[in-house]
Amino acid sequence: RRRGAISIRDTRSRWGSCARDGALSFSWRLIMAPPEILDYVAAHECAHLVHLNHSPAYWRLLRSLDVDVRAARDWFAANGQRLYAYGAA
Fold it and tell me: From 3.40.50.970, 3.30.2010.10, 2.40.440.10, 3.90.700.10, which CATH number describes the 6-85 domain?
């Protein structure tokens, strides 16, 4: 699948998403995350251009992109809610 438009959004429940048409969207709050977390989210969404699911094949592809899945998940567990607090009304 070809990559479509890339957009930055004010999301409330996702860090990124990949639509069926290949459009990639990312939360603006990611700019406050460490670079390796940005890399992880970008790789996560780009892997969805090949597998639009979270199948074992998807996770194999993501791990082949040289990102630390466990470290990113741990970082979001520890820091994700704090990032979502930015811009909250």
Answer: 3.30.2010.10
